[in-house]
Amino acid sequence: MTPTTTSTRPSAGDVLLLVGTMKGAFILSSDRSRKKWKVDGPHFPGEAIYSIAFDQRGGRTRTLVGAHSNHWGSTIRLSDDFGRSWTGPERQAVRFPEDSGLSLAQVWQITPGRADEPDVVWAGVEPAALFESRDAGESWSAVDGLLRHEHREKWMPGGGGLCLHTIVSDPKDRKRMAIAISTAGFYRTDDGGKSWQARNNGVRAVFLPNKYPEFGQCVHKVVNHPSRPERLFLQNHWGLYRSDDWGESWQDIANGVPSDFGFAMQMHPHDPDTVYIVPIQSDEFRVVPEGKLRVYRTRDAGKSWQPLSNGLPQDRAYENVLRDGLTADSHDPAGVYFGTRSGKLFGSNDAGESWTELADALPPICCVKAAVVGTA
Amino acid sequence: MAISVIVPNALTPYTKGVGTLVVSEPCSTVADALAVVASRLPALTDRVLTEQGEIRRHVNVFVGDESVKFLDGLATKVSDGTTITIVPAVSGG
Questions:
Q1: Neighbours of A180 (CB within 10 A)
Q2: How far is A300 from A329, CA to CA, in rounded Å?
Q3: pTM of the shown model
Q4: ipTM score here?
């Protein structure tokens, strides 16, 4: 795979890799072979891109970027032409209501809504709150039930701030969705966002006197598969878990991983039993164990995990992958991709069996999202 | 009354390229002057103030040669001929 610099004009079946870094966004594109990549960017040079998404519902080809200027604040920027041009909004569209006393620090997550609600987009932000757009990302409003949650005053910021970083929806039930907050834990609504219940039974909080509180866990990422949405996989700040009942209870599935600490977690696009993670040594030494860069994959819903390292550096590779730094495309075999804090981007066009370095000196990578053009 | 508000280059996309704004409406504080600016150029003010109306952490606002951090913040008094300067703080990496 040989990256070159050019503008992105993909066609149906091509793969897009949207890469958010601490210094701007990059858009990589390839045909379905995923052997040769074009690199476009940086977009928003100098701004930190913690969240990025591609939305093809409703006939759109919309890229949404949460861009953060250290000086001028955070905005969500939109492009309908693969980054050739970006629209405002001129105003800061994600705004906390004045009576909340809160101000937007960062947009941590942008997630298109369900397929049958093509104009709905969700954003998770810091300080922890969920925002909803009903016009595909043009305007936003805070979800009141979570904004005014009775637990809010006891939520504590993690190292990255008090952030809502994970949004999980239920394609079978419009009123059900879930979010995760560092450090507050996993919350679910069954009434369309009016009320939210902590669902952390069995998830450990190693840093608290009470190791199993109702809430206060530092959940790093949660994923599910649309064909089996009630089954959730959770990467915790120490701990790897699965729930088969939408978070009512969680079971430890750290079976054979070198560490159950980590951030990134990605569902296989076609198999609800297959999940990818990147274990990290510890919270004090946030690099991959033994200096070996390995993605771990389970194909049996967490009963066992196997390392995937073919093509990845295995000697003095002190890398870290952040919570949104691991992604997959929807081709078969699936493409799997991840970016590191040191600006390296790796890709696999065979579901993780082998890997190639796609870029080796990008700015620190915050997030990577993959999409196949023409598949809403 | 004429108060000048000097805008950094990075924010001139939100002022149609104008680097110095003139506020001629009656104002007694920096907050008053910025409120007038906000009524004309809300996108500019979004980048200077948070939605709670506070100066962003990495933005400095000067009255004359002194940062309002060392005066009375947004309540710092202004009068005819005052120059308010908005500058990005020396920060980041």
A1: 30
A2: 20
A3: 0.94
A4: 0.88
